[in-house]
Amino acid sequence: MERKIAVVTGASRGIGLAVARMLQEKDYVVYGLARSRGEAEGINWMTCDITDGRNVREVFSRITEEEKRIDLLVCNAGIGISGAAEFAPQEDYRRQMEVNFDGAVDCVQQAAPLMRKQKSGRIVFISSLAAIFPLPFQSFYSASKAALNAFSDALGIEMAPFGVQTCTMMLNDVKTDFTDNRKKTVQGDDIYGGRIASSVGKMEKSERSGMAPREVADTLGRLLDRRKLPPHKIVGASNEFLGLLFRLLPAGVMLRLLGKLYG
Ligand SMILES: NC(=O)c1ccc[n+]([C@@H]2O[C@H](COP(=O)([O-])OP(=O)(O)OC[C@H]3O[C@@H](n4cnc5c(N)ncnc54)[C@H](OP(=O)(O)O)[C@@H]3O)[C@@H](O)[C@H]2O)c1
To answer: CA within 20 to 30 Å of 197's CA: 10, 26, 85, 114, which one?
Structure first.
């Protein structure tokens, strides 16, 4: 049987690297896209800044030339910013959306025509529980992930007749460099009574004791064994319980609870 072809963005470390390794173990031919190269043999590393449209087009046309098909695209590359919405520097919140949302869309637009023509393909977006539980002082991050969820769902309906499936995986805390790489703005913390630093500090503490990236990768591996991907997957049993609460609780109650925890 022919080996399946996978493209993983943000594969140089963290969750993307774990996903790339898991796919390798499942005998996929893996293309890893990032600005830097990850430490793993056997992955086809492609230098790619997903916010640079020309770079994205070049990389996908090389993959298409070499492989003639793409079976799986994992849109994983992402960054985080934090701070009070009113003080967020414009360049920071634009960059947040550019990497987490626009960059993913650009990659999808490169892979989708091929998947449509080959009448099969899977697109997985690495999202966050913040998409459905919007985090105070991480409003732009939450918005970027909510945008991904909506995009994935709509795209899935559009492309279903062509055999293309989409899925958003919503993660809670995962222990990676993401926490240290978060760009934090504490401007206004005095006005907000220290709530910015306190909320982001709490979030960082839980991220540092979060699940291993491999757990996310293994969950994705099990999803890929299914004939049909679920449109949404919350990773981790206790997090799935949070997903159930989201469906049951009125929005006002959920937001008050979030405010108590992180507000
Ligand atoms: N860690 C968590 O608690 C958590 C929770 C929920 C969701 N997530 C999501 O999981 C995904 C992966 O995060 P992680 O925790 O593995 O973080 P990470 O360790 O910081 O890895 C981020 C990856 O994204 C790549 N990346 C960043 N900007 C890029 C750009 N402009 N072009 C191409 N690649 C870029 C990085 O590679 P280069 O720097 O080499 O380009 C790196 O490979 C993100 O979408 C994040 O939002 C993480």
So the answer is: 10
